[in-house]
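Case study B.
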Amino acid sequence: MRQGVVYINTNFSSVSGFDAERDSMRTCLLSPLPSLPFVSSQPVPLPFPMAHGTTTLAFVFQGGVLAAADTRSSCSGLVACPASQKILPIHSHLVGTTSGTSADCALWKRILSRELRLYQLRNGRRLSTSGAAKLLSHMLHPFKGTELCVAATLCGWDDHTSLSGPSLFYVCSDGSRLQGTLFSVGSGSPYAYSILDQGVQWGLTVAEATSIAREAVYRATHRDAYSGNCVDVYHVTSQGWTRRTREDLKEEYYREKESRRQTHEAEKKML
Amino acid sequence: LGLKMLSAQNFGESGKMKEYHYAGPTEHRFSPYAFNGGTVLAVAGEDFAIVASDTRLSEGYSIHSRDSPKCYKLTDTTVLGCSGFHGDCLTLTKIIDARLKMYKHSNNKTMTSGAIAAMLSTILYSRRFFPYYVYNIIGGLDEQGKGAVYSFDPVGSYQRDTYKAGGSASAMLQPLLDNQIGFKNMEGVEHVPLTKDKAVQLVKDVFVSAAERDVYTGDALRICIVTKEGIEEQNIPLRKD
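Model:
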């Protein structure tokens, strides 16, 4: 449905109907969705780098879904933002971790929230995590092959379908959509996987799970240059998502160093 | 200017001269971007916001203008600072002004700082595959009258901050602001809240430092102080070399 030039066109009932206008001024005034690339053969070389590099993780356990991420947003060697938000709530029972280009992740999450809200209004129920992951995957598909880079895990609680409970999906802009019980995404993910594979199991308590997630992000930020600063932890249950206070990992590093020093002193004394 | 020594092709990212030695045949393509320099800074306080920019417009080794400020007044409570490619800055501010008017006519109220920030994010992202080469920082008052600063990357990723520096000298100024306003990387320091006069003095000192060490920053400093009384502007000279 096209609207007149005077009004801002924010009402997209069909997500696939991109405005094919080539005139960028009118595009800005009419359609908020990005149209397909202007130059099809040779992309314009960019004079600036995009923000990349992260550690995010999510896993499922008996108490729901736990998602954790660092907060460093880097831009080819410079820390663009030491306090960015990489876990974005999409609705009351769904959060998404973001990895890749931060602008792509933020905007596509916003578009996903809008589409899920429209679904909820039209159908009287929330879309399942599986459905939300499929929707995101299909929305990103027309941009496959372009430089769009989104690697997100959707962590949610479904309570209306026959399979209710915690649910975790990994969606990537190259087209992958995978269901799983444990995912870690980003440049620091190998380090996080080593901690998670050792400790994550279904029967963990909330406190144990939080502690493992925090430890995994801490170890990854210690070794990966592009991850760092603080850690955010979100917990999704049947009541919705809750957020743990953001914690600065610098304190943790000094606490651990101090306790190591003390055990070292104690050992020396015993000899 | 296309094929002479000082063409845009000789300049890599952020306008710094590329290595000038023979590296084999090179392809020269027209680049739609240019880097015009300039630094922008914004600080948010309890009931005020400050947006400051230098006024030098340069390209390569030349200075096009010494009086081209990069602060644009959007509403009575919001100022936008944009640096990078001047052509995109001009077009972007025209589009924002048009969208502000459209909003005013449709909704019979002025856009708030938070709404302008969200709108700017979608405007920048609509050009995801041929971006506006502009580093934006919005400074203003939010609905509660508190100072707000929103910083953007060229493709629309944004968040609310207390202070942010953008543009050619941002890598030099941001650590200084982290230390003086955020009290970061210091031990045992009392966190005093920032007053308006101290903030203005800090901004002046910070730009004087930037003009010393960054070639693209200098000439003059334009400070816009946003309070509930309105927007006050100050002009301070900087070094012109």
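Confidence is low (pLDDT under 50) at residues 1-10 of chain B. The remaining cases will be described in the next quarterly update.
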